[in-house]
Amino acid sequence: MSHSVVFEHVVKKYKMYKKNSEKLLDILFPDGYGENFYALQNISFTADRGDVIGVIGVNGAGKSTLSNLITGVIPPTSGKIEIVGQASLIAINSGLNNQLTGRENIELKCLMLGFNKKEIRALMPEIIDFADIGKFIDQPVKSYSSGMKSRLGFAISVNIDPDILVIDEALSVGDQTFADKCLDKMNEFKEKGKTIFFISHSIGQVKKFCQKALWLEAGEVKAYGTIKEIIPQYEKFLKEYKAMTKEEQRNFKQLVLEKRSKLAANK
Ligand SMILES: Nc1ncnc2c1ncn2[C@@H]1O[C@H](COP(=O)(O)OP(=O)(O)OP(=O)(O)O)[C@@H](O)[C@H]1O
Predict the structure, then answer these.
(1) Which phi and psi angles does 64 have, rounded to 5°?
(2) CA torsion, ordered 67, 73, 76, 80, to nearest 10 deg
(3) Whole-angstrom Cα distance, residue 183 to residue 190?
(4) pTM
(5) Which residue lies with its CA nearest to atom 23 of ligand 1?
(6) Ligand 1 cavity residues, CB under 6 Å
(7) ipTM score of the complex?
């Protein structure tokens, strides 16, 4: 099986500035300034061609940061990322320019991906048809509902035929008919042996669609394996988490936060 995505000890660190002046001090001081925060810490995993991987984890675990790293939206702070082929991100707010119309966004995204005018003209009807947003295609994206944005993003990303598809919560908005249409398209991708990362809070969708799961917890890989292995462990964790009192949950979050900042302070 050939690799399509390889992460080796990948770290994504953010600086939390309290004031704008701290940004300047961060540049001026040799050791930097401001509080560090690890969105992701020491992430290593390998995805093969044809893998459909559900990325799971509670709010703030680092799922969106991971999807932005896979698709090159943001660079890692350290570590190595190998991507074989082209990766495309579908997220609720991914890469759409709010001031431009839907049609202009299609053109822009395709141009950025290296398509020429002729290729874009050929792709355009298919994308518009898939998005199914009617007259809104010639309206600025800022007038779209979140469902419409997601549909347009989805339509562009799947129709440009990427090798790696990252779907970040995009199916959580919009109606069931569109979700079904997207699932069909994703199955098509699966059959073509492409790699899919499916980020979702819906364990049902992950179970239905994915063979593997990557469980992120507090910016680290908690577990990676088959759905059969990982989902029961994750469900057990969620059950225990939900059973905690509000106070216990707060303490848990505080400990996680401290750990994620302290790790950075030691670097
Ligand atoms: N630009 C940024 N600056 C500072 N912190 C950030 C930035 N982007 C993300 N973070 C922090 O990194 C952590 C991981 O965020 P991320 O959005 O990847 O989590 P997530 O698992 O996708 O969460 P959710 O399920 O709520 O969407 C969060 O604590 C978030 O506050």
Answers:
(1) -70, -35
(2) 70
(3) 10
(4) 0.85
(5) 60
(6) 14, 37, 39, 57, 59-65
(7) 0.94
